[in-house]
Amino acid sequence: MKNNPIVSVIVPVYNVETYIEECLDSIVKQTYPYLEIIVVDDGSTDSSNQLVRKYLEDERILFIEQENKGLSGARNSGLKKATGKYLLFVDSDDYIDLTMLENLVPLMEESQADLVRFNGAAFVDGMEKTADQDYYDFSHRLKEKKIYQEDSFRANSRTFVSPVYLYLMKRSILTEYDLWFREDIIHEDELFTPQVFLSIQSMVYINAFYYYRRYRENSIMTIQSPAQQLRSFTSYLKVFKELELLYQSDTYNKEQKKLIKRQMLSIYNGLKENQSEAVSKNNEMTQIKSITLKDKSYLMLQKLWNRI
Prior knowledge:
11 helices, globular, glycosyltransferase
């Protein structure tokens, strides 16, 4: 690519013909030009592929076509081709603010942080009303433009959210620690993002809304069929077991383990919510020994607090 990209933007695509143009427009029209845009068509069966091809005159775009491997597989294919100093992941039914990278890249360069956090706004497709916007707003917990180093894990323990698209990160972190998305699960961010946070030395936060997350009726995260519920439970269980191994390791300090434990509690909640009758018969939940009575009490108090 001729523009010596500083940022690699990875966009996995699967059957998003209604949204892909809005997504790509928000990336190719960025006021910051030094990008490579890696679009991975993960075996789409609608017109997504043809719509992406309309953008290929832009020399910054690398288009990868592959058989369906799932979201993790598509992201990993993009990672293998990425050459930029920084990485940004954008889901193909979402879009980003046009000034996002113009503001984030100088902040990363000036602070020399491994990762920058920013806010996002969630909305329901076809509706003007936002959906649970507070979940993506970190201004009540983090100080703007402060460089978090030794206190990074303490600061993040109560503000951690797993969606990888809410972070701009150094690509070297992923290559140095050999971090990839696990391909046999959904909820892949629930494992990948904690692994990233366990690998960084510093982060910085900017109090601005740059990412717009779309919730749509037929997305993989809203299907509630028994088969999908079972798949969701199985994925959560795999993630939980991976986190459990990290927690039991001697590699991490007290603050890092707090972050891991907090994520384990979040996954435990996901397991309970996706525990179908078929799963219950296998007594999968009874195999989890690392969630104590104290932890369960904490979860109950947290639910009560959220209702206030």
